[in-house]
């Protein structure tokens, strides 16, 4: 076993230095993401006791992503990409600290907090894409995203368990004349997260990442291949918003409290993490569509079972399917997207960031449509109807992305443009 781990470490050491630094930084930030994706939604759900407020928070967050993704393009003309990435990591910690330490957060405060956290995410994700694109090649992107997904999956198992236990054990405890409750527990977690963001920014400082040579990045007309990729991004965005909010909503309503989040996520997460690492390590670019299709099919099955049996059992099955789906989907999706950027940026002789920014608009369109549908069904039909059927609708629509991704892959490999 030790020999195997040593062999894998040696293989990791053969990767480019900048790629390794980025992976280590993302591993540290992976400890932060579960707090944003799971416990922020749980915190809002506990505070407002209404799932529609979680959806409103998500719309504000996604709007913040778009605002800073656009601003980031201008800032890249004057600042290093690594510095902007680090700023996004730190800003996410600051925004969470601010939200958690407000005693009575109203709807306006919720929207402001969501926009700020989205702004941090915009700096994080767009610069992450740019650095990953420039520090990897098509032949090692499966490995990059497989190892990254391995980190994220392990964090999605361990972090919720640790936080869930902390929140459950701290409630009602008295220490030095202070009575702790769930809300003080959230604040302690948020301060710990902020310390991790500082460590992640230090890690990133050890790498060397280049800014785009061309400065123009804002375009409105693109190659037909890229337009297909944007449609694929919109389909991804359609389901992506639900993956952030739906598990917390469903678990808080039908299963239990925050401690249940970690237990349910951890049931299948370990197996998924190992599977994703092995796929990233050994799968070839030609296997991406198979991985993509299997992940989406698993998600569809989970939503159907949740729709039929909207109870503790149905929710548990859905969350387990979601744990398998998300890393499988990302493992295939991001290398496909980056291969397309490699091709179309050469065809059109444009800044890579032009496509990263436009990709965020595609994701945003899908996210707003999906969450808008959920909010509409929750307000005008019922909350349980929205939780039961909106997931099935987006999962069925997501099946359309399988033939679309296959067509994109076929066209992107028609011309030789390997790095």
Describe this structure in words.
The chain is mainly α and 419 residues long. The protein has one domain: Growth Hormone, Chain: A, CATH 1.20.1250.20. Helices cover 82% and strands 1% of the residues. The chain has helices at 2-13, 17-29, 33-48, 51-75, 81-100, 107-135, 138-170, 182-204, 224-254, 258-282, 288-308, 312-348, 352-380, 383-398, 401-412; strands spanning 174-175, 178-179. Strands 1-2 form a two-stranded antiparallel sheet. Strand 1 and strand 2 form a beta hairpin. Helix 4 (51-75) packs across helix 6 (107-135). The longest helix is centred in the last third of the chain and has 37 residues, at 312-348. The chain is globular. The two termini are 35 Å apart. The relative contact order is 0.15. The mean pLDDT is 82.
Summarize the structure.
Helices cover 82% and strands 1% of the residues. By secondary structure, it is mainly alpha-helical. The chain has one domain: Growth Hormone, Chain: A (Up-down Bundle), CATH 1.20.1250.20.
The main sheet orders its strands as: 1-2
Strand-pairing-aware structural class: mainly alpha
What is the domain total for the residues?
1
CATH topology: Growth Hormone, Chain: A
Label the overall shape.
Answer: globular
N to C succession of SSEs? HHHHHHHEEHHHHHHHH
**Count of runs of 4 or more consecutive helical residues:** 15
- CATH architecture designation: Up-down Bundle
CATH superfamily: MFS general substrate transporter like domains
* Beta strand %: under 5%
CATH class call: Mainly Alpha
Largest sheet: 2 strands, antiparallel
Number of strands: 2
End-to-end C-alpha gap: 35 Å
Q: What portion of residues is helical? A: over 70%
Average pLDDT for all residues: 82
Radius of gyration based on Cα positions: 21 Å
Unreliable stretches, pLDDT < 50, 5 or more residues?
none
């Amino acid at each position: 076993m030790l020999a195997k781990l040593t062999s894998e470490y040696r293989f990791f050491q053969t990767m480019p230095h900048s790629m390794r630094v980025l992976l280590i930084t993302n591993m540290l930030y992976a400890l932060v993401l579960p707090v944003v994706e799971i416990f922020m939604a749980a915190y809002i759900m506990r505070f407002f006791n209404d799932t529609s407020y979680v959806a409103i928070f998500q719309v504000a967050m996604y709007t913040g992503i778009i605002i800073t993704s656009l601003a980031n393009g201008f800032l890249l003309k004057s600042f290093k990409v690594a510095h902007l990435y680090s700023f996004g990591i730190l800003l996410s910690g600051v925004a969470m600290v601010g939200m958690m330490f407000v005693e009575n957060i109203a709807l306006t405060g919720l929207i402001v907090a969501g926009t700020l956290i989205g702004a941090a995410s915009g700096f994080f994700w767009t610069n992450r894409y740019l650095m990953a694109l420039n520090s990897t090649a098509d032949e090692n992107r499966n490995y990059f995203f497989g190892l990254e997904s391995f980190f994220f999956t392990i964090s999605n198992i361990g972090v919720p368990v640790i936080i869930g236990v902390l929140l459950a054990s701290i409630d009602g405890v008295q220490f030095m004349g202070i009575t702790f409750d769930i809300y003080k527990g959230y604040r302690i977690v948020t301060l710990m997260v902020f310390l991790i963001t500082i460590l992640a920014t230090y890690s990133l400082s050890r790498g060397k990442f280049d800014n785009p040579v061309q400065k123009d990045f804002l375009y409105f007309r693109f190659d037909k291949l890229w337009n297909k990729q944007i449609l694929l991004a919109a389909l991804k965005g359609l389901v992506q918003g639900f993956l952030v909010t739906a598990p917390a909503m469903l678990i808080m309503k039908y299963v239990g409290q925050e401690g249940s989040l970690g237990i349910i996520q951890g049931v299948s997460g370990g197996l998924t993490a190992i599977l994703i690492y092995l796929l990233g390590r050994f799968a070839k670019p030609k296997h991406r569509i198979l991985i993509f299709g299997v992940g989406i099919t698993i998600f569809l099955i989970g939503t159907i079972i949740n729709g039929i049996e909207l109870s503790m059992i149905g929710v548990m099955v859905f969350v387990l399917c979601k744990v398998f789906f998300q890393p499988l989907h990302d493992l295939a999706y991001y290398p496909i997207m980056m291969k397309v950027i490699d091709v179309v940026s050469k065809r059109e002789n444009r800044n890579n960031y032009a496509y990263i920014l436009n990709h965020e608009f595609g994701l945003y369109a899908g996210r707003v449509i999906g969450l808008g549908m959920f909010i509409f069904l929750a307000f005008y039909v019922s909350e349980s109807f929205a939780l039961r059927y909106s997931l099935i609708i987006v999962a069925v629509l997501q099946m359309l992305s399988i033939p679309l991704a296959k067509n994109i892959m076929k066209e992107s490999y028609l011309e030789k443009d390997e790095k």
